[in-house]
Amino acid sequence: MPRPDMTRGRIRIAPSLLACKFERMGEEIEAVRGAGADWLHFDVMDGHFVPNISVGPLGVAAARRAAPGLVLDVHLMIAQPDRYVEEFVLAGADIVTVHVEAPHHLHRTLQAIRSRGALAGVTLNPGTPLGSIEPVLGDVDLVLVMSVNPGFGGQEFIPSALDRVREARRMMDARGPEALLEVDGGVTAGNAPALREAGADVLVAGTAVFGSPDYAGAIRKIRGE
Ligand code: DX5
Ligand code: ZN
């Protein structure tokens, strides 16, 4: 798999597999690929960092096999990401994103992701000051602003997240090195225009895509076409 194109200038839509029909994950992946998805967002939850358990490296490897051409964007909501990043890279993740709130040496974990050959992302919960990611802005390929409290799909977008996206964009622009800005949680065709205007490059959408009868139409609307 070639390294993903991370240049800015176009919106990427990343359907979140948490909302897909798990018994038919391969078909669901094929369907969103055909519907115009750019990335696949894969949510990993451990029942410690968040109050829910989803899937681990085996699930990522299955998604990798089902989606050879799509960027696999793995969001780790786990308590000890440093222990597992290598496994997720080996499973086929193109991007591994870790939470600043998890108890680990953030900088070391980001270095470990990159040294294994994947792209590194950092993310933070809605209640965490944005300044907490500032020290590592030069060491990441992706910044993910959470717009719900992580743990579950299908939650309402937290309105204050819009200002945080704008502020994250400002911080990233001031910092220099190019990284993409992603938003995750409660994204819909209704709030997508404001998020794009605020500087988001990647919009994660679970329910808004997999809950729609028309995946292609949903993706087009979120993209703003
Ligand atoms: C929340 C996850 C999200 C979620 C998005 O913990 O990180 O990726 O699946 O789903 P929707 O779009 O339904 O909020
Ligand atoms: Zn996510």
Structure description:
With 225 residues, the protein is of the alpha/beta class. Helices cover 33% and strands 19% of the residues. The protein has an eight-stranded parallel β-sheet with strand order 1-8-7-6-5-4-3-2. The chain starts with 11 loop residues before the first strand and ends with a helix. The mean pLDDT is 97. Zinc ion (ZN) binds at residues 16, 41, 43, 75, 184, 204. Residues 16, 18-19, 41, 43, 75, 148, 150-155, 184-187, 204-208 line the site of D-xylitol-5-phosphate.
SSE layout and pairing:
Elements (H helix, E strand, L loop, with lengths): L11 E4 L9 H10 L4 E7 L11 H10 L4 E7 L3 H10 L4 E5 L6 H10 L3 E6 L17 E5 L14 H15 L4 E5 L7 H6 L4 E4 L1 H4 L4 H9 L2
Parallel strand pairs: 1-8, 2-3, 3-4, 4-5, 5-6, 6-7, 7-8
Helix pairs in contact: 3-4
Bound molecules: D-xylitol-5-phosphate and zinc ion.
Would you kindly provide a brief summary of this structure?
This protein has 225 residues and is an alpha/beta fold. Helix content is 33%, strand content 19%. Helix 3 links the parallel strand 3 and strand 4.
Name the descriptors:
225 residues; alpha/beta; 8 strands; globular; binds D-xylitol-5-phosphate; binds zinc ion
Bound compounds, each kind once, are: D-xylitol-5-phosphate, zinc ion
The N- to C-terminal Cα distance equals 28 Å
**Helix-strand makeup class:** alpha/beta
Element pattern in H and E = EHEHEHEHEEHEHEHH
- Averaged pLDDT, please? 97
